[in-house]
Design brief:
about 450 residues; alpha+beta; 2 domains; eight-stranded mixed beta sheet; five-stranded mixed beta sheet; 17 helices; about 40% helix; elongated
């Protein structure tokens, strides 16, 4: 007999856990709507051509590809048959890796029905063929909010305010919003004549929170054939957390770089605007890279202070993502809330309200000769918006009461006669054990 199990990196959720996840989703939805975002949904599967080439080489390797219907790939394991190993021979679809690339495809496909700037939100699962570990799953939900069709940095400021408001509502106020700009990173790397290694460098420096500064510098020395890069980031990692010190260092470092000056200007606007609006937990982090290739401007990550979970929100500006689908000059910026990590954090920190597992208020035990009496009482109570259930089977009373106790139902209603609105019923308080006769209208 096969032992039941689920794939690694996936999870079952009990009713209690679903209620807690819905608590998160409900707050996120309310805030998204408050900030003027409208909901959309996209298919779980996208064409493989839609997804590949958008996430960098590492991201492409993590796509869950869908086998073509009727496809046979036994031959693909023959060493001499290299051609048959190519993706297009056995797969032309994949499960979505994130919600941003499908959204870019959606924008171009439905552009004639959209008024720009378009503010959308999306709460759906995504899939990654990743190595499962704490806080990292192969199937997980993302909660995305994006603004497309505007180059204004007001959008970045709005998203920072959105992040702040949602996390505060979820009792995760002890967080830091880290910000950087891809233009600044590109200019810094170009100043060392290492532009050809941009993707490799960003992947390495993005590990600093996981492996530490010394190991990042060592990886740069080992993997990038340019000693200036390691020296640059050694200097960068030694900077203080002061926004003014970092901006002054950048202005001196990138004095002759037009791209760098543009990035600094954008970063300063967002930081200064957020300071005026009272966002006091925004931190410039020049090692923040975000591993996805489509980012072109501001980038964000949010971590909970004194916690090793990793980022719980991420996002940034993308100027060219819709261009690959045929739509030029359409800039966008967005953020994604990692629902699974937020859920795990709130569970570990005991931040969920105690009343989420609210049971039915009444359980009806029909002791009359006809079960229709219990059904009529059930229907009447529900018409009055009373949460109630009817025990369906004619089991021994002890078993029925045990069921009510196990499900934390506070009251059991015994019905022994034909249903009538003015009837008397026997009411048992499951906590105190007290039992008495009451008019039906009095217990509602």
């Amino acid at each position: 007999m096969q032992k039941p199990s689920i794939p690694k990196g996936t999870r079952d959720f009990s009713p209690s856990e679903i209620r807690r996840r819905n608590f998160i989703f409900d707050i996120v939805k309310v805030k998204f709507e408050k900030f003027g975002f409208s909901p959309i949904e996209t298919p779980s599967m996208e064409k493989l051509s839609t997804l590949t080439g958008k996430y960098g080489s590492e991201g492409d390797q993590l796509l869950f590809k869908v086998l073509k219907r009727g496809a046979k790939f036994e031959k693909a394991f023959a060493e001499s048959d290299v051609e048959s190993l190519k993706d297009h021979n056995f797969s032309d679809e994949a499960l979505r890796y994130d919600l941003t690339v499908p959204f870019a495809r959606y924008i171009v496909q439905h552009q004639n029905d959209i008024f720009f700037p378009f503010k959308r939100y999306q709460i759906q699962p995504v899939w990654r063929a990743d190595r499962p570990q704490k806080g990292r799953y192969r199937e997980f939900y993302q909660c995305d909010a994006d603004i497309v069709g505007s180059e204004s940095l007001v959008s970045e400021v709005e998203l920072v305010s959105l992040i702040q408001e949602i996390l505060n509502e979820l009792s995760l106020s002890n967080h830091t919003i880290m910000i950087n700009n891809r233009k600044i990173l590109a200019a810094l790397i170009a100043s060392c004549n290492a532009t050809d290694f941009f993707s490799s460098i960003t992947v390495i420096i993005d590990k600093v929170d996981k492996i530490g500064i010394d190991k990042v510098v060592q990886e740069l020395k080992t993997n990038i054939p340019n000693n200036e890069i390691a020296k640059l980031f050694q200097e960068l990692f030694k900077l203080s957390d002061s926004q003014n010190d970092i901006l002054n260092w950048l202005e001196n470092k990138l004095l002759n770089s037009e791209l760098g000056r543009k990035g600094i200007q954008e970063l300063k606007y967002v930081v200064e605007s957020c300071n005026i609006l009272g966002v006091n937990n925004l931190k410039i982090n020049l090692s923040l890279a975000r591993g996805l290739d489509y980012y072109t401007g501001s980038i964000f990550e949010v971590v909970l202070n004194d916690n090793s979970m990793g980022s719980i929100v991420g996002g940034g500006r993308y100027d060219n993502l819709t261009e690959v689908f045929g739509q030029k000059n359409l800039s966008g910026v967005g953020v994604s809330f990692g629902a699974e990590r937020i859920y795990d954090l709130m569970k570990d920190l005991n931040l969920f309200p105690d009343n989420l597992d609210k049971p039915s208020k009444f359980m009806i035990v029909d002791q009359s000769e006809s079960t229709i009496n219990g059904l009529q009482l059930l229907n009447f109570l529900r018409s009055k918006n009373v949460e109630c259930i009817l025990y369906p089977d004619n089991h021994k009373l002890k078993k029925q009461l045990k069921y009510a106790h196990s499900n934390k139902i506070p009251f059991v209603v015994f019905i022994k006669e034909n249903f009538a609105v003015e009837m008397k019923v026997e009411l048992k308080n499951m906590d105190s054990g007290e039992q008495n006769n009451s008019l039906l209208k009095d217990i509602i």
